[in-house]
Write a structure and sequence with these properties.
- It is built from 15 helices and eight strands.
- It has four domains: about 260 residues, no CATH class; about 45 residues; about 70 residues; about 160 residues, Reverse transcriptase/Diguanylate cyclase domain (Alpha-Beta Plaits).
- Helix 15 links the parallel strand 6 and strand 7.
- The model has no long low-confidence stretch (mean pLDDT about 80).
- The longest helix is centred in the middle third of the chain and has 112 residues.
- By secondary structure, the protein is an alpha+beta fold.
- Helices cover about 80% and strands about 5% of the residues.
């Protein structure tokens, strides 16, 4: 008979079992709730008043305490940053103060909303306008503090502040002023007035420093031992000094003005805060007196309800575990065996509910998983082979692209006719030699040569023969140059040779050897062809254009003196050397 009574429950679905269990639990809760509803209603009203009043009072005290904390942080920021440094003061005081002010604004807005919605007295509601003023004052407090810190940052930030900039200019001026007694005395006078201003913050002291800077400028201009470059540099530094010295007092005045505004804003919120504290405290006391009369009854009803609900919940949990949870745990263990690869037997369903259907589905899934594992390895091997072929093709394409890029790079710096370095390559080599000369003091020289009467060769024999002459000339130059020299075609019938770490006398002799080789060589069809050479060396302060101009001048001097000769143009103002 007992088995017959339990069979409908065992064969029922999981949803039906849960629905019946929770329906019984809900009925118990409703019965218990109905009994305590009346008592809780009275308690709820009293609690609403006291909770609202307590929260309002708590927000007022928190708001006032946070604002006072922000004032202390503000005060400590301006007291401590000269001694501990601006960055440390900003981290210790400014950032925490900004966060505190934001909390004050948030608390003010929350307090305003609570007063509007809470069941408080009319006297406290009438203070909503004062709270609006408090909120706007707190926001203004934060804005003024941010503006103050921004101005202090502009004045005293390490490295970028006006005062650090002024000290940097001062140190550079000191290096220039120490060279002459006539400039040292005005400089020291200027620094003394500047130091006095940093202590007193009085504008007349800074004005005196500016007057001394004017005298220092005049001393630099009148000093006979000062070079024009030093005078120009001192003038630029004094311009920077005057700009900074005029701006620093203006920023100091703005900071003092903001400090006064800051003090006025702080004084404006104190009466509002005190009045709100008094009203909120009164609200709490009145609400506390009302709630004492109903608190005992409410506690008793709540305790009874909790005990009854807990007992019924345990009963429902036991029933659900016996009919549902235990079976799900068995299915979970079966799934773990499948995950670990341990052969698992089929799950035997012992009921017709959802758990029994799930057990049958698990058996089907076990069969399908075994089939999928068997086919998975073949698919992985096939995919691996395809990826290997794709990788090999990609590597081949990358190698071909690298070879083409290298060929293009060679073409970009090579003259097509002669195979020598083109003008771009020569300019890059000269720039590199200039950098070496500036860094290591290693000089270098250049040879600029031009084929004599090349136009006549083209006119007499044609451009094909002229091109052949240029190619043979290029071969002669490469054959008779050193490995360290760079031979290139400068343009038309002009060639340029860059000779690293070689002085002008050695290069002039080398140019003379080239000239004799040209004179002895028999060019195809054209016969004897001569060249004119211009030689120069890198000097202090030279750039590539200056070196080319001197070599070109020497080359034209060789042309003017009858061609087929070597002319040198040294870097310094010395008489030219004839080849």
């Amino acid at each position: 008979m007992r088995s017959g009574l339990l069979r409908p429950w065992r064969d029922a679905g999981v949803t039906t079992k849960f629905a019946l269990a929770f329906a019984l639990l809900l009925a118990m809760v409703l019965l218990e709730g109905l009994a305590s509803l009346l008592a809780l209603n009275a308690v709820h009203k009293a609690e609403t008043v006291i909770i609202a009043s307590t929260e309002i009072r708590q927000r007022v005290f928190e708001m006032d305490g946070e604002l006072e904390k922000a004032r202390r942080l503000h005060r400590d920021f301006f007291l401590q940053y000269p001694s501990i440094g601006f960055a440390s003061a900003e981290e210790l005081y400014f950032k925490p103060s900004t966060e505190v002010i934001n909390r004050v604004v948030t608390l003010s807005e929350e307090l305003k909303r609570r007063i509007e919605s809470a069941p408080v007295s009319a006297a406290l509601r009438e203070r909503n306008n004062d709270l609006t003023l408090y909120l706007s004052t707190a926001r203004r407090f934060a804005d003024i503090f941010r503006e103050l810190v921004a101005q202090v940052t502009e004045l005293a930030a390490p490295g970028t502040g006006l005062e650090d900039q002024l000290l940097t200019v001062e140190s550079r001026l000191e290096a220039l002023a120490q060279k002459q007694t006539a400039t040292l005395l005005p400089f020291r006078k200027m620094v003394a007035f500047q130091r006095s201003y940093m202590v007193s913050r009085r504008r007349p002291d800074m004005q005196s420093a500016l007057n001394a800077a004017f005298d220092l400028r005049a001393a630099f201009k009148s000093s006979a031992g000062t070079s024009p470059e030093t005078r120009a540099r001192a003038g630029r530094l004094l311009d920077d000094y005057a700009r900074l010295a005029q701006k620093i007092p203006d920023v100091d005045v703005a900071i003092r003005s903001k400090l006064n505004d800051f003090t006025l804003q702080a004084k404006a919120v104190d009466p509002i805060s005190a009045n709100l504290k008094t009203l909120a405290t009164g609200e709490v006391e009145r609400a506390r007196a009302r709630i004492q009369t109903v608190s005992r009854l409410s506690v008793a009803v709540i305790v009874v309800t909790l005990i009854a609900g807990l007992a019924f919940s345990l009963l429902v949990a036991a029933v659900i575990h016996a009919s549902v949870t235990r079976k799900i745990v068995a299915l979970t263990r079966w799934a773990e065996q499948m995950r670990d690869g341990t052969p698992a037997a089929d799950v035997e369903p012992d009921a017709k509910d959802e758990v029994g259907v799930l057990a049958a589905r698990f058996n089907d899934m076990r069969t399908r998983v075994l089939d999928l594992v068997t086919n998975l390895e073949d698919k992985v091997r096939q995919r691996t082979s395809e990826l290997t072929e794709a990788r090999d093709r990609l590597e081949t394409l990358v190698r071909e692209l690298d070879e083409k890029n290298r060929a293009l790079e060679i073409l970009s710096v090579t003259d097509r006719l002669t195979g020598l370095a083109n003008r771009r390559k020569i300019e890059e080599a000269m720039q590199a030699e200039l950098e070496r000369a500036r860094r290591y003091g290693k000089s270098f020289s250049v040879i600029l040569l031009d084929v004599d009467r090349f136009k006549s060769i083209n006119d007499a024999y044609g451009h094909t023969v002229g091109d052949a002459v240029l190619v043979q000339a290029a071969e002669l130059l490469v054959r008779n140059s050193r490995r360290t020299d760079l031979v290139g075609r400068w343009g038309g019938e002009e060639f340029l040779i860059v000779c690293p770490e070689t002085d002008i006398s050695v290069v002039a002799a080398q140019a003379e050897r080239h000239r004799k080789e040209f004179e002895r060589f028999a060019f195809t069809q054209a016969g004897t062809v001569t060249c004119s050479f211009g030689v120069t060396a890198c000097g202090p302060g030279d750039d590539a254009q200056a070196i080319i101009r001197r070599a070109d001048a020497a080359l034209y001097r060789a042309k003017d003196k009858g061609r087929n000769r070597v002319e040198s143009q040294p870097a310094a103002d010395q008489p030219p050397q004839n080849g």
